[in-house]
Fold:
Amino acid sequence: MTDPDANVQQPSPAAATRAAAATRDIAEVPAVEVISTAAVHLMSAAAVKCGLSPDTAGVPGVDLMDLDEARKLITALAGLVTAAAPEIGNQHARSLRDGLRSLQLAFREASQFPDAPGEGPGEAWTGPVS
Structure:
């Protein structure tokens, strides 16, 4: 019989040290910062998918538009913001809600056939956006 672990490469000592340092670093980051960072990443991706990115290298932002993907990102953002709001406090949640609402409105404006009120991306979590 062969040992299944015989072919598994072990990390180098330097890689193990870097991983331990990264773990210590993330342990020092407050939860509100982790949540806010995740929300900002979702917002940025959704903005690009809604066609809100600036023209770069001669490629108009509208070419990057993908409303199906934007819907998923906005819905995930709405769930995160709604669930995290009581934990992160009104000061942080307010700006995330404002960004979410702006994305929901941008999505509606970009849609050729806008969803009915209350049925847009994330509106199951936030309620109708107008």
